[in-house]
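Worked example 4.2. Below are the chains of a multi-component assembly; read each line carefully before continuing.
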Amino acid sequence: MDDRRLVERIRSGDRSAQRELYDAHVDRIYRLAYRMVGEDALARDLTQDTFVRVFEKLEGFRGDAAFTTWLHSVTTSVVLNGLRRRNRIRERERSIEAARHIGTAPTGPEPDLKRRLQAAVTGLPELYRSVFVMHDLEGYTHKEIATALGVKPGTSKARLSRARARLRIELQDFAEEWVA
Amino acid sequence: MTDEQRLEDELIVRAAREAYNAPPETPRDDMWAVIEARLEAGMPAPDRVARARAAHARTMGRLSWWMGVAAALVIGLGIGRLSLGTGESEPKTASHSAGSEVAEPATTEIPLAGLPEAEGAPDTTSPGGRTVRSTGDASPESPREPTTAMRDGGTNPAPYATATRAHLSRSETFLAGVRVDLAAGSTDAEFEAWARSLLSRTRLLLASPAGRNPETRRLLEDLELMLAQVVMTASTSDPAEVRLLGEGLEQGDLLQRLRTSSL
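Applying the procedure described above to all two chains together yields the following structure tokens:
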């Protein structure tokens, strides 16, 4: 059943249609949330927040755009806000943690690829990382990303290009090894 | 962009798909249960939920703090009781061998084990009636003399009553200061620490024989509530809570009761 029919059923009070709509989209929403935040608990919270907000605001959804477009713009808004809140908290924790380690030399082996990759992607500016995660990891189109983030598709492409370039530099040693 | 760069990009993306925050299987049913419950409860989404969560976190923070204090008090009381129990036979021998009855000192305080002693170590009185400040590192050659509370196994209410009066007096002074500051529209940054200290002691007294007297208990419970409110207000600086606290202090009779009881 298409989204438009499901939305109509929900508006007419059919509670089972809520679950159907949820089932149709939850994977993509949860996957994006998880990719962005990297924590199950927070990804669940953000997915839940997204759907609660969607169901509450469904009356106001005019249907001019595709439902998925609207859903993804709600998702990115909820996820990015959640991520910023989390990062603010982490930043405070990190400054305390950093102060604790002042004067101690770094120990341990050279980080492996997974850790380097994690650090490189996480270290991207949020604007670039969102596009990289959405496009390259979760398969969103530039049009979808542009609508969700409220930018032009060209901007989305440019950001992706910069994100990739930064990752290439960050992971140069690994990348050269692979190519060789 | 060169072919080599394109290849590097592909490899990085492939690796990132596998390694960067690879999502587990979607917990559909678990999440749906929460969503359904929230929708049924009419709970609004993100903004208010975030505020509710923040309030919950604050409450949990306070709760865990109180639980920590409570646990420390319970452990402290337990240790205190145990040490009083073991001291029961020795003091008798000691006082009998000294051949003199120890006069009950007016300055004796209950040994408040486990509680941060803001006012310093409790005073004890030597057999000769001389008041000495006890320290934790008393030498074995000069064993710490038992207090009245220790001699009777901690059930003698007199030292507790003395300690309670002193505590009520300090609390009255503190709350009067809070009232003056609130009226002047300012709050002292040290209020919170002071209120916490008084609150801990209030709870300790509530758990002691002093709390067995119904009238004292009521007063201590009212004081506990007020101090908890001061702690909460000081930690949040919420103007509404500050106003409520000021009204509570102005309109209630707690200060008067404290003044009367501490006399």
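Take a moment to check your reading of the output against the notes. Strands of chain B lie at 123-125, 131-133. Chain B touches chain A at residues 4-5, 7-9, 11-13, 15-17, 19-21, 23-24, 26-28, 30-32, 34-36, 38-39, 43-46, 49-50 (CB under 8 Å).
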